[in-house]
Amino acid sequence: MNLKRIHTGYLLGLSLLISSVLYFFASNWQGIERIEKISLAIGLMLLFFVGATLLSRFQHSHRFLERWLWLIGTIAFGVSVALIGQTYNSHADSYFLYLIWLVPAIIFGALTGYKAFYVLGFLLSQLAFYFYVFPSSYFPDWKAGTALILIFIYLLFTHAWFFLSRSSWLRSNWIMFGSFCLIHLVFIASSFGYWEYSTLIGWLYVGYGLISVFLWKHREEKELFILAGIALGFFLFGKMVAVLGDAFGDLMPFFLLIVVGVIVFLTIKYLPRLERSEKGSEAWKRVFKSSLLFVVTVVSTVMLISAFSGIMFLIFSWDHALPFVFSSLFLLLLPGLALKEKIPFLSTILLLSGLSILSSANLIDAFSNGLQPKTVVVMLISFCMIGVVLKLTTNAWVGSYAYLLANGVLLLFLFEVEESLLAIDSHEPLLLLVLVFGNGLIHILGRDDWFNRNALVYSIVPLFILTFFFEGEWLYWLLNSVFLLLSTLLVFYKPWQSNPFRYWVGLILWYAFLFYKYYDIAWSLVHKSITLLVAGLLVLGITRMVSRKYKETAVEEPTFVAGRWKLIWLVVILMVSFIAYNGVKNEVALQSGKEVRLALAPVDPRSMLQGDYVTLRYDISTLPGTVLPSNKKIKVVLTPTSEGLYEYGGYYKIEGKWNKSYEPSDDDIVMNGTTYSDHDVQYGIESFFIPEGAGDSFEGITTAIIKVSESGNALLIELE
């Protein structure tokens, strides 16, 4: 346990330091010049690599710190490349960023054997492909045939990751399960919809799914067999519902009810045989039975909810909640409770369906009618019924779902009371404190079981939500401080072995807080950076002091870069050179390029890595009267107007050929771009990064000032 606490302390401390640096750069602090920003980004990366090298030069018991520093330095490289994009207003979410970032991650993995580098490389390869297919600054118009080819390419390279992850020299379960799930997910997602090849992909997946099920049933990794079966089951269920919905129309609810009955009958009939076959057998068969029951339960529950709601809707209207409440009580919940010992499988389906219909009726009734006597009666009846289920059920999943709905009904009632009677306006979110204190008290007084763990979740999560309200008020700082204190206590207070659930809840929410506060404008990024820096140094200092007291945790390990540090530093030097080269190249383009003014119309999203920016669309983004091939390099001729702006001059060049005869003019500007539809071009200047929270001041902009180099590459300078 001591070692677990020490590792966690170092992990949190380093996370705070990294977040501090990221917040500092993302603040777009105007006092830092472009060259200084790039120099600081390189210095940040070198700091981690130098620290890791120093740790590798002497014997110590914390080799995990050395490994983390090498990994963090590699992550800092990607951040530094992204900062180049921010500094020169080039989009950081380009697939090229992740592709460049991928190279050192894979090389470091091969040199050190540290699997975390390969996991990072796997994630970066997925991001690179995603942003190639779905760029965040424009919307490519992929033709159906091209989209089909892209799907096959994705499946091929993800299969390559999958087979590499099972090889003896890599052997990574993270990559194996991640790639396996993504393959099935992409197959299934591409099989639904109305595009031209969805049916083809669907039939291919049927074959692929069946092969996966039979192939992995006889292999060592039985988990893959179970995952393949679950994925194929959900796919077939979705296709069945889609086909039957078109065939039966209004009779669909009655047909679904019959299908549910057949499924339940067959499951009850063959379940004893499955239970007999699993006794004394391998553990995977028991897992298979549980997974099969899970899939059948989910599918049957969804179908029963749809059938029951459809039939009830034909008889009643959603404006009358009481028929739905009492029908769910007498036809679903009470039978479900009565069968919980005799037929647990059927009981679970009935209880989950009844609880879902009950909560839906409450929600619709409250929003439709407000706080009326009838609404209060519906909520009270529902709350009591959920309480009875919580008291009598022995199924942890059903109980957890009922606990969630109990909190939801209570919160819905509180908000309805506030809106109709209290009118506390801006302090309305404080109603969440009822959940915080109520569930917190249940957690403190209860014993460690599924009920107690639910109480923990529904006490700390509402408190996390409250940290985003009351900006600029003392309540904001109080709620944020209390949340940080409690989440840290969850991580460190109880031993890991005695309550891992509490540890992981605290750790996940701690990092969620760190991530989401990046986008919280109530507290400027500069101030966040300073605070996180101090907190990180404090956590590292305390962890270091604690680690020195626990001598039993000091186990000497060899450095994982022994004999390879020269090759590793060669890669580091190449990484630094790449960043420096791009900085110099962009700076030269700024100094020597020709200034051009363009008309535009912006919108305002955010960058995944860089914070606030406006996405721009120019008049020259569309070339009227053209039919362009997609994803081709293009040179577009811009000509000046009488208003001092530049516009599309009617000429463009693709694959070395002009669309029509062109005679160059000294006033013309030739700018590089990439086509992405029949008429549209992307120039790489579609993102302009702005100071945090300053989006409102850019709403009225109509003109962009850019610099175009002699080679035709453009850099965005200013908006006005």
Description:
The chain is an alpha+beta fold and 720 residues long. The protein has helices spanning 2-26, 34-56, 63-87, 95-112, 115-133, 144-165, 173-191, 198-217, 222-248, 252-278, 283-315, 321-338, 344-369, 373-392, 396-422, 432-445, 450-466, 474-492, 500-516, 525-549, 565-592; strands spanning 594-603, 606-607, 611-618, 633-640, 646-654, 657-658, 669-675, 681-682, 687-689, 703-708, 714-719. The strands form two sheets. Strands 1, 2, 3, 9, 10 and 11 form a six-stranded antiparallel beta sheet that branches. It has a five-stranded antiparallel beta sheet with strand order 6-5-4-7-8, with no helix packed on it. Helix 15 runs parallel beside helix 17 (450-466) and helix 17 runs parallel beside helix 19. The longest helix has 33 residues, at 283-315. It is globular, with a radius of gyration of 30 Å. The model is unreliable at 604-611 (pLDDT under 50).
